[in-house]
Queue: 2 jobs
Job 1
Amino acid sequence: MTNLPALGERTIWIDCDVIQADGGTRTASITGAFVALALALEKLRERDVIRTIPLSDYVAAISVGIVDGEPLLDLAYDDDSRADVDMNIVKTGDGRFIEVQGTAEAIPFGRDALMTLLDLADLGITQLVEKQRAIVGHLVKRPMTTMRTADAQDRRAFSACRDAALSQRSSRTPIGEMLALVVGRGALRARVHDGRGPRAR
């Protein structure tokens, strides 16, 4: 959700140092890394290196899973170590998927269970985005649509792809498509490289 051409000839590194591995560290790092990125971009703008903040939406991630037959949000280590299903979800603020990674650790799970976990992840990510908004909302100017709106848009896109595939008699459908706040979970910092060496931000 970053306009990379607006950065010019620069590279941004975001270091996520795990302080306490109590579960959910990867997803917490992603959620916190977005905040670190926004703050680093704000520094660049203050120094007149860039003119605008090239962020169009939020990015947040959460873990979900099934433990002892019960869907859980933000798995702690004890839950994760004995989960029947373990899944990480990364989404934009308006509800579009960036990554869905899930594994049946024991018994395979069905579509109903998958949809339950995705809905649960939506609840968690919505809360995380609100926490991000409280910190860097002044840097992300695009109004956030609801996840329900994004889902409706996805359904329309899916229908269009399906209809096009059927009209071509094709079997292939081209579907393209916390921060608890990292406090106690990880420390983050962003570094910007402009060809003259990295500097901590």
Job 2
Amino acid sequence: MKKGDILFKILVVILIISLIILFVEVIYLIDKEFSKPYLILPNDNKIYLDIADTPSKRSIGLMYREKLDENMGMLFIFEKDMNHTFWMKNTLIPLDMIFIDSNKQIVDIISNATPCKSDPCKTYSSKYPNKYVLEINVMQSEYNNLKIGDKVIFKNV
């Protein structure tokens, strides 16, 4: 076998291995994107979610975050429908709070919950029992035309 033939075969093997690695990376990225939790609003817009489903995650929430990307939010998940209370201590950005019951129906909306700069901090709670609370960027509830009684759909939650 000639030296050129061996070199050609080595290059072909390297090319095939590189394509396999690239294919695996693409599949991984696609799977990661499709498995990220999100919520579908009544207008079909998606809100990609960070999940707060344990007491420690719920107590930290969005504290110390300097920004929240567009179409992102945090979904607080509780064990059952109750009147859950929130505050904005150590939260740096204003938020809208969407209270959602176990039937995935919006039961209350608090627009423009402002950061707490000093104690005592104002508290926010729904007028009605809820199992989930979605925190999103301020004015997003108005932008998405959310109303009490609207239903949302959870995906990968």
